[in-house]
Amino acid sequence: MPIGYEVFTGNRTGLGDEPRRILDELSKINIVDVILPTRKGIEIRKRRITQPNEHQAILL
After folding, report:
1. Which residues, 6 or more positions from 29, have their beta carbon under 8 angstroms from its beta carbon?
2. For a pLDDT cut of 90, what percent of the chain falls above it?
3. pTM summary value
4. Alpha-carbon torsion (1, 7, 10, 32), positive or negative
5. How many CB atoms lie within 10 A of CB 45?
6. Distance between CA atoms of 27 and 8, rounded to whole angstroms?
7. What count of other Cβ atoms lies within 10 Å of the Cβ of residue 10?
8. Residue 14, CB half-sphere, CA atoms under 13 Å: how many?
9. Cβ contacts of residue 49 below 8 Å, gap of 6+?
């Protein structure tokens, strides 16, 4: 078994070895781009990303 296989397949996270479950878990991480226009025509952009939970952090 290659190094990292256990982490990639989710065996340490309790997700089993089903790729669909792993992708579903990672899809719960939300990313939102906030764009605020100013009076001078400049846009203030800020990217907000939710913190991954313990299982997602292991997969990442």
Report:
1. 49, 50, 52, 56
2. 20
3. 0.45
4. negative
5. 9
6. 15
7. 19
8. 3
9. 29, 30, 31, 32
